[in-house]
Specification:
This protein has 13 helices and no strands. It is globular. It is mostly helical and 233 residues long. Helices cover 81% and strands 0% of the residues. The protein has helices at 2-7, 11-29, 37-51, 56-63, 70-76, 78-83, 85-90, 92-116, 121-127, 134-144, 148-172, 178-200, 202-231. The longest helix has 30 residues, at 202-231.
């Protein structure tokens, strides 16, 4: 059976799609933070790979092709943002201020946690862009001298976690404004969280899409300065 998986051109992609559809079905029957499709599908795929002792490289031979869809999917986020353009212009100052506070808080929190737990500057440099979409986060980590593998895995976990609990956190924090909810989700959990924001409403989706872009640009500028402030060159 292991040989079949090694030569299969569709195993990884088919497994991923199938498990995601199963997760969607479960989420529709029992809607809860831990049944978020992205989170649940990830758990299912990992369970199958571990249970059948299938190497990740074997799985990724075909599953890796799904990453080609990340670019067009990300571009699609511009559609709800364009539809809410008058709203974006009306609240431009508040949006930029909120995003700046969110970005600075995120990077500083990473640095302080690393100092408090003695994790060292390498971990801090790797996690400074934890709330930024993967493509931008990799570039930031490389410029800071961090470990890209740690950055990518952390960004994925952050996105899945944000998509899973964002709705609950917004309710508990009393965030009723769709603008605030969307900005918070996009700033904290990038593209994965934006998929959840789009489900919450058109304004939330537009604001979350905008937050991905702004937080990425701001983090690229702010992260090196904050990391240097805490850890030096």
């Amino acid at each position: 059976m292991s040989g079949f998986f090694d030569i299969s051109l569709y195993f990884g992609a088919a497994l991923t799609i199938f498990m995601f559809l199963v997760a969607v079905f479960i989420n529709r029957r029992w809607s809860w933070a831990l049944t978020t499709p992205l989170f649940l599908a990830t758990i299912f795929v990992v369970a199958v790979l571990v249970g059948l002792d299938i190497p990740y490289d074997t799985y990724n031979k075909s599953a890796g092709y799904l990453t080609y869809f990340l670019v067009p999917v990300t571009v699609c986020f511009a559609v709800p943002m364009y539809r809410q353009m008058p709203l974006l212009k009306k609240h431009a100052a508040a949006i930029l201020t909120a995003m700046a506070v969110g970005v600075v808080s995120s990077v500083m929190a990473v640095c302080l946690v690393c100092i408090f737990f003695g994790l060292g500057d390498v971990v801090a440099r790797s996690l400074a862009a934890i709330s930024v979409t993967t493509a931008i986060a990799i570039g930031i980590t490389e410029s800071l001298g961090g470990v890209v593998a740690l950055t990518v895995s952390s960004v994925i976990v952050t996105g899945i976690l944000g998509a899973s609990v964002s709705d609950i956190v917004c309710r508990r924090m009393g965030l009723r404004s769709p603008i605030a909810r969307g900005l918070a989700i996009g700033n904290a959990s990038h593209a994965a969280g934006t998929t959840k924001a789009i489900q919450m409403g058109p304004v939330e989706g537009a604001m979350s899409s905008l937050a991905i872009v702004i937080s990425g640009l701001m983090t690229a500028v702010v992260a090196p300065m904050i990391v240097h402030m805490f850890f030096g060159v």
